[in-house]
Amino acid sequence: MLRALLQTLIRRLKRSSDYTIDAALPATALLTVSKERGLAYGRGLLRRPALAACGGSFFVGRRVQMLNTRLMHMGRSVTIEDDVKIDALSRGGVWLGDNASIGRFSVIECTGVITRLGEGFRLGRNSNLGDYSFVGAAGGVVIGDDVLIGQGVRFHSENHVTTRTDVTIKSQGVTNRGIVVEDDVWLGSGAVLLDGVRVGKGAVVAAGSVVNRDVPPYAIVGGVPAQVLKYRQEPETKA
User: Looking at the domain assignment, is residue 5 inside a domain?
Assistant: First the structure.
């Protein structure tokens, strides 16, 4: 009975008819999941009035820090897990799409210094940011729909200028070009994405890779720096 009720509730929240709970899940585990999701839902209810927008159910874990919430826009059934910090101070704010989730101990910072506002962060529908990840969104970080992001992935949308040697690096300022990850991408655990890169649709980035150049659609890349290893499908050729 509990399994059926929980499954129906999740399907309604996600608006998905194909969500099925594993039959091997014990009743005690179902009770634990129900309790934790219920508490997270309650914390979300308390946070919703402070947001710029919220499209539906909102689940918030323990010890979550949310700063500049009037710049946060949440879709339906968004989950922010325990010990996450999000500071939305930026020109564009933070946008999390339907069914998006932010993993435990992750940090999203949209502005490095208040003398120069950052661009902001967007995470698309059904996309997740894995535990212990870091998003530096001063130059703007945009992640598409259905994107899988492993644990400890880092996005750095800012570079320090180092052209002069007669003054300190710190005094030369920064450049920002932004990072874009298109739909249906898998970023493996520990991957690092540097400013100015675009990861094409359907691409796979191997765990521990450093991406410092664009990744073609449907490419599988790996290494430091990341190189194309093969393609999931042959790249399209121009006529």
Answer: no
The residue among 28, 100, 27, 30 whose CA lies nearest residue 59 is 100
Indicate whether 191 belongs to any domain: yes
In a domain, residue 18? The reply is no
Hey, what's the torsion of the CAs at 8, 13, 16, 22, to 10 degrees?
-50
Residues with active-site annotation: 160
Supply the CATH number for residue 78's domain. 2.160.10.10
d(CA 86, CA 65): 6
Q: What is the total count of domains within the chain?
A: 1
Domain presence at residue 161: yes
70 in Cβ contact with 97 (< 8 Å)? no
Residue 192 belongs to what domain range? Answer: 24-231
CA torsion, points 7, 78, 211, 153, in degrees to nearest 10? -80
pLDDT in 10s for each residue of the chain, 239 residues: 555 655 555 555 556 556 677 777 777 877 888 888 899 999 999 999 999 999 999 999 999 999 999 999 999 999 999 999 999 999 999 999 999 999 999 999 999 888 889 999 999 999 999 999 999 999 999 999 999 999 999 999 988 989 999 999 988 888 889 999 999 999 999 999 999 999 999 999 999 999 999 999 999 999 999 999 999 987 665 44
The strand ranges marked E within 13-147 are 53-54, 58-60, 65-67, 72-74, 78-80, 85-87, 94-96, 101-102, 107-109, 121-123, 128-129, 134-136, 141-143
